[in-house]
Automatic annotation (TrEMBL):
PROSITE patterns: PROKAR_LIPOPROTEIN. It comes from the Bacteria. This is DUF4842 domain-containing protein.
């Protein structure tokens, strides 16, 4: 019990003497109606006989520092009695606080709640209920009855408590076995050829997996995007540096990773040994690739697959997500329940469908806040991956691996995602696929 009182550092109880009186003891004053008043006085509950010097002395406020549970901060009381709520001002009477008169008719009234507040409407005190953990600290817990007599003003005592807000420390123990992992960088630069403009810097996107048989979303080790745009304010993605974690205790010629590399939307893939990474870094400092130009792809080979997007009303350039990467985002407004279709284009460089191939159709089915998005390929086309962004706000990235919804497929001609949004009829959608012939 001593420890309990010690922990309730700012716990106060305010009690008052019960007394009943009329304006004149033997005279009924007809001008007055029946009513009750509540008087509050008290000390700190945690005080023992040897700690009285720290008691709060109510009514002697000048020059003293107020505490969170100081009775002198109390401004008004809220009393619930017989199903009615009464908000009553408090007044100082000597060393005690007393409510204004509550005028009610004669009878018995059950008090079910009593709380004191400061001038900023912050709760300071409350009377505990019977059976609660704080009921033992008061002489009379809630609820209790008061009796009101005709043409009498009656004062009742009521005990209230103030408990300091306190959260005990919570802790556990965690131990780590430290394993040192190192990371190698393989920085890649690529360009591609246009018939009219010649060599241009290519956009790059890479996905790193343990090996060619483990390429699911759960197996993904690292992904990144580089737009090759040296005029942009974002310098972090101008050159793509692929991160390859490795174990320094194992020879590098015994470690390798499977990499899917999109060069300007065209998929290249291959297994990269770590000793080859060391050789590239020592000799050149980076890997230089050429797409559709004379040059060596090194260990990467073309797959016959390229990137595709569902046609939309905003390009990535329009959204200022890139200065060169092609692709569309669709802003849908005032959407009603039903189906909506969009063409899926592969290889539509510069957002020009004349440069691409119509590869399939995207169907968006809306039912309230639930949306089903289905990719269907035209004859002769399949998909190896699909990525979907759908949300209330515009996309913030053009890297499909960060759209939030990914499926890894094998020669699929159809694929679906079931997603949801706020249901207000407005949303954004970006549908990407790796399309193969």
């Amino acid at each position: 019990m001593k420890n309990l009182f010690k922990n309730l550092n700012l716990l106060f109880v305010c009690t008052a003497m019960i007394f009943m009186y009329s304006c004149q003891e033997d005279e009924i004053v007809s001008e007055e109606t029946s009513g009750i008043e509540l008087v509050f006085t008290g000390d700190r509950v945690g005080n023992t006989a040897d700690a009285k010097a720290g008691d709060v002395k109510l009514g002697a406020n000048e020059g003293k520092e107020f505490e969170v549970c100081d009775m002198s901060l109390a401004s008004y009381a809220v009393i619930e009695m017989a199903g009615m709520s009464y908000t009553i001002d408090l007044n100082v009477w000597g060393d005690s606080y007393k409510t204004d008169l509550i005028e009610v008719g004669p009878g018995s009234y059950e008090v079910t709640s009593c709380q004191l507040y400061d001038g900023d409407d912050n709760p300071l005190y409350a009377t505990p209920t019977e059976g609660s953990e704080f009921a033992r600290f008061v002489d009379q817990a809630l609820p209790f009855n008061v009796e009101v007599e005709n043409y009498r003003k009656i004062e009742y005592e009521i005990d209230v408590l103030c408990v300091e807000n306190f959260t005990p420390p919570q802790f556990g123990f965690v131990f780590w076995n430290v394993n040192i992992k190192e990371v190698k960088n393989l920085c890649v630069f690529a360009n591609y050829c246009e018939p009219d403009t010649g060599h241009q810097v290519a956009t790059l996107e890479a996905f790193v997996y343990p090996n060619e048989n483990e390429t699911s979303e759960a197996d993904l080790i690292w992904s990144g995007f580089g737009d090759g745009d040296y005029n942009s304010e974002d310098t972090d993605n101008e050159l793509l540096c692929i991160k390859l974690p490795y174990d320094s205790s194992i020879p590098t010629d015994e470690q390798s990773y499977y990499i899917e590399l999109f060069v300007n939307g065209v998929l290249l893939e291959g297994t990269m040994p770590l000793d080859r990474v060391d050789q590239i870094n020592e000799e050149e400092g980076y890997l230089h690739l050429n797409e559709d130009c004379e040059g060596d792809y090194d260990i990467f080979s073309k797959t016959g697959c390229e990137t595709g997007f569902a046609f939309g009303n905003n390009t990535f350039v329009d959204l200022e997500l890139t200065n060169k990467r092609w692709g569309w985002a669709n802003e849908l407004t005032n959407v009603q329940d039903g189906s909506y279709t969009f063409d899926i284009w592969a290889g539509a460089g510069q957002n020009n469908t004349n440069n691409g191939t119509l590869a399939g159709v995207l169907t968006v089915e809306v039912s309230g806040s639930d949306v089903t998005v289905t990719y269907d390929m035209n004859q002769g086309f399949t998909m190896s991956e699909t990525h979907l962004y759908l949300g209330d706000n515009p996309p913030t990235t053009i890297a499909p691996g960060q759209f939030g919804n990914t499926h890894n497929l094998e020669n699929a001609t159809s694929d679906s995602f079931s997603v949801s949004y706020s249901g207000d009829g407005d949303f954004w959608i970006v549908a990407h696929a790796v399309i193969c012939e």
